[in-house]
Write a structure and sequence with these properties.
ERCC4 domain-containing protein, nuclease, magnesium, Rossmann fold, 6 strands, 341 residues, 3 domains
């Protein structure tokens, strides 16, 4: 009599909700043929791999989450959602930005640097005083966010200083004062803000002092600088305290810039200045330059755009006319073929 030791093969059906380690014949009638795609496959639930834990041993059913674990997960999800909403509102943005104030600002006669530091501190933003920010010889303010420099710089000038710079540039026949040329070279691609302190007061003083004084001369110069530079943005304030408050608000806007939604007012502000922050001769400067060309009689908008593409600024166009590389006839036909010009 021969005894045969038989080994029963147990087939576990992961696709079935009643898989319990029984064989197909003894359990629910499932056979290996069924697992391979037999006729009963359509009547079974498909395998949901997302419900199988990655670290679970093969053949084990996924562990069900307890009520306490489910509650902890829901609390964590709600907390993460609240933190995300705070970031979108910019509540954490102020902690990520540091305002860098140059030593020249603290040494200025009107104490504008000290007032700027106080205003920035009142807005809840950190600040540092640096002596190696720039060597333009004027009080400047930079910003640093998450360890990187923000492509934006503000220069603080008294109205008297700005007018003296314009007068000196006019005497030397320079279209742009040396201060702004040097700032553009050292901060290439940066948006440049110029805060003029005591502008209206200085205009009134000069008007009373001299009847021949014309405020329009300097107002026109400000408009010219917006074209001849990369879109210099001038903000006029009455005193150092107002200048400090303006820079404090500007710091808040720059800090919240990455988290602003397009539906908010801050998002609208960011859309307006995004092209300027991109640097280069685009954005505000190019729009002003195109409008300036378009004011010339018989120059259409298409022609103005073609000229602005060929010559990035008024200074570039004047250099082409003043250069010795082109003859008189070539200079006369310099704009021919540019959009019908």
């Amino acid at each position: 009599m021969t005894t045969t030791n038989s080994c029963r093969v147990v087939t576990i059906d992961l696709c079935s909700s009643s898989a319990s380690g029984r064989s197909g014949a003894e359990g629910d009638g499932t056979s290996p043929e069924t697992l391979d795609g037999g006729p009963d496959r359509a009547h079974r639930r498909p395998l949901n791999v997302l419900n199988v834990e990655k670290n679970a041993p093969a053949g084990e059913a996924p562990k069900k989450m307890t009520a306490a674990e489910r509650q902890r997960r829901e609390v964590a999800e709600r907390k993460a959602k609240r933190l995300d909403m705070k970031r979108r509102r910019g509540d954490f943005a102020l902690e990520e930005v540091t305002v860098l104030v140059s030593a020249e600002a603290l040494q200025h006669d009107n104490q504008v640097g000290l007032r700027v530091c106080e205003a920035i501190k009142d807005h809840g933003i950190r600040y540092e005083v640096k002596s190696d920010l720039s060597s333009v010889g004027a009080p400047t303010v930079f910003w640093r966010a998450r360890g990187e420099m923000v492509p934006c710089v503000a220069v603080l000038l008294d109205a008297v200083e700005f007018m003296d710079l314009c007068d000196e540039a006019q005497r030397t026949r320079q279209p742009v004062p040396d201060l702004f040329l040097g700032l553009e070279r050292k901060c290439e691609g940066y948006a440049v803000y110029c805060v003029l302190i005591g502008w209206e007061r200085e205009l009134l003083y000069r008007e009373k002092k001299s009847q021949s004084f014309s405020p329009a001369k300097y107002e026109h110069k400000i408009s010219e600088l917006a074209v001849l530079t990369r879109g210099l943005q001038v903000h006029k304030v009455s005193d150092a305290r107002e200048a400090a408050e303006y820079l404090g608000q500007l710091s808040v806007e720059l800090a919240r810039l990455p988290y602003s939604c397009s539906e908010t007012a801050a998002g609208d502000f960011c859309k307006k200045v995004k092209t300027v922050f991109g640097g280069g001769r685009m954005g505000c400067q190019k729009r002003v330059w195109i409008n300036m060309i378009h004011q010339i009689p018989q120059i259409g908008i298409k022609t103005a755009e073609s000229i602005s593409d060929a010559f990035q600024s008024f200074a570039d166009l004047m250099r082409s006319y003043a250069g010795a590389a082109l003859g008189t006839s070539e200079k006369r036909s310099l704009l021919k073929g540019l959009g019908g010009a």
